[in-house]
Structures are given as C-alpha cells and as structure tokens.
Design brief:
The protein is mainly α. The chain has two domains: 95 residues, Serine Threonine Protein Phosphatase 5, Tetratricopeptide repeat; 162 residues, Type II secretion system, protein E, N-terminal domain (GMP Synthetase, Chain A, domain 3), CATH 3.30.300.160. The chain is built from 14 helices and three strands. It has a three-stranded mixed sheet. The N and C termini lie far apart (66 Å).
Length: 290
C-alpha cells in the first residue's frame, strides 16, 4: 500500500469525503469523529479541536450523556484557554452521567417475543461515514484498488442522496456492480472482524424473531435478527467494521446477540419476506378481533 506522502494524500482524500458528508449532514457524529482523528493524524491540532468541540456540541444538543461523557476529558484539556470549550464542559457536566447499563439478568427477564422499541440514544439512521470507513479498510488491505474505492464512494454518495427504502452498504454496491472478488472480500471482512459468514437462505422466517429489531433500524443500519440460540439472538449485519451497531442491537433486543456477515441480496430478500409476513400476521389478528 501507499506509504509516506501517499498515506498523507489518502488521509486528505478521506477528509474531503467526510467534509462533503457534513455539507449535507452537519451533525453527522461519525463524520465529526473521523475528521477529528484525521486532522490529529496529520498534525493539524486546531482543526482536530474544532471537530471535537462540534461533536461535543451535537451530543449536548441531542441529550446524549454517554457520548458527551466520552469526550469530556479531552474537551477539558481545551477549556483553560478557550471560553467555548469551557462552556461546553459545563453543558456536558449538566447533562449528568449516562443511564445505568442494564444487567444481564434484567436482559434475560425482558420479553423476548414482543416487538422492540428504540432505546434512548439509539438512532435509526444511515451512517455514510461507517460505510466509507468500511471501503477505506478494504482499500488499505488491497482488497479494493484506489479506482474501485473511488467508484464505491461515488455510488454510496449517489444512493444516499436519493430517497430509498432499501439498505445502503458497501456490499450492496459491490454486489450491484457484480464485483468479481466479492466472495474474497466477504472472506476478508469475516476474518478481520471475526464475524462468520452465514447463508440466510438456510433459515426459516419467524416473525417473533424478525420483529425484535424495528423495521427502520433494520433497513437504515443493516441489522436483521434471524434466529435464536437459547436466550441469545443471532443477527445478520452488513458492516462488521461498525462496532456501534452491535451495542445498539443488544440495547434494542435486550438480549445477548451473536453477529454474522450476510450477503446483501439474501439480507434484502429476508427483510421483504419478513415485512410481508408481519403485515399478514397483523391483518389476521385484526380479523380475529372483529
């Protein structure tokens, strides 16, 4: 891979991509976080600070105490000679600490078959930065060329700029392009992220399991509950590099989850089948009540 100056040029390319995302979504957390890290890598500490403070402001505005607390110590380091940072520290401290984490016992006592809602702090939004990070990781591992990476980024940008009810992911782009090395890339991701590949076509749809994850989160974030193992839930995901999604899914289900990498076409097919089955179930229940 590229070294020295080439590496720095790649960082600048990533910075340009994330800043483009912020033009459309000024409060995108992942982009703000990525830009703070990127500018720190190239030694521009003033810009790194700018994005850290912006990210902290987003956490405060959205009332995310857990996220804000994670930045508190770093922001305190700027507060001595920056009034804006000092004010932000006061706002974060006013939020208080994050809510207590649910104990494993409480998780197991939670209802398993009812449709779950969205816990506080979990958002059902497509995160472009996470997908760009996935593509970037694949390019750094020589699984994608620079030209292929650029094409993937362009396709992701085009797909996310329009209205769609379907999941958007790097794997969707590659499968849609009939990328010849998709199987190899899937194997690389599975090995690097320690996330086994699963064939969803081997599993029979069960609405009680399918409904554990709300439709909006399932589609926007690419996470699908497809089976249980004792008290645990088996979940198919499309971007194992995104570690936050694992935490969010466990918060949504209230159960311990085991994650697997799935082919995007199989994922989409099961999502559509699941939605149809849930709609039919609701219709039957309504008719029975009448």
């Amino acid at each position: 891979m590229a070294k020295g100056g080439d590496v720095e040029s790649e960082v600048w390319a990533a910075i340009a991509a994330f800043e483009q995302i912020l033009e459309a979504m000024p409060n995108d957390r992942a982009s703000l976080d990525a830009l703070a890290d990127a500018y720190e890598q190239i030694g521009d500490l003033a810009k790194a600070k700018e994005y850290i403070l912006r990210l902290g402001g987003v956490y405060v505005d959205e009332g995310d105490a857990a996220g804000a607390q994670g930045l508190l110590e770093k922001i305190k380091g700027y507060a001595a000679d920056d009034p804006d940072a000092e004010e932000l520290v006061a706002q974060i401290e006013a939020l208080g600490g994050p809510e207590p984490v649910e104990t494993s016992k409480a998780k197991k006592e939670a209802p398993k078959s009812e449709k779950r809602g969205m816990p506080k702090g979990v958002r059902a939004v497509f995160n472009m930065a996470d997908e760009l990070s996935c593509a970037w990781n694949l390019m750094e591992a020589d699984e994608l060329t620079q030209e292929e990476y650029a094409s993937v980024v362009q396709d992701l940008t085009d797909m996310s700029s329009g209205e769609t009810e379907h999941t958007i992911s790097v794997l969707h782009v590659l499968e849609g392009r009939q990328f010849k090395n998709l199987d190899k890339i899937m194997g690389h991701i599975a090995k690097q992220c320690q996330t086994p590949i699963i064939s969803l076509s081997c599993f029979e749809l069960r609405t009680d399991i399918f409904e554990k994850i709300p439709d909006e989160f399932m589609v926007k974030c690419g996470a699908l509950a497809f089976e249980t193992l004792g008290e645990d839930v088996l979940v198919a995901i499309l971007n194992p590099y995104n570690t936050q999604i694992r935490k969010d899914v466990e918060a949504i289900t209230g159960q311990t989850c085991h994650f697997f990498l799935a082919m995007p076409s199989e994922f989409d097919k099961l999502v559509e089948s699941g939605k149809e089955a849930v709609a039919e179930k609701a219709l039957m229940e309504a008719e029975e009540e009448e």
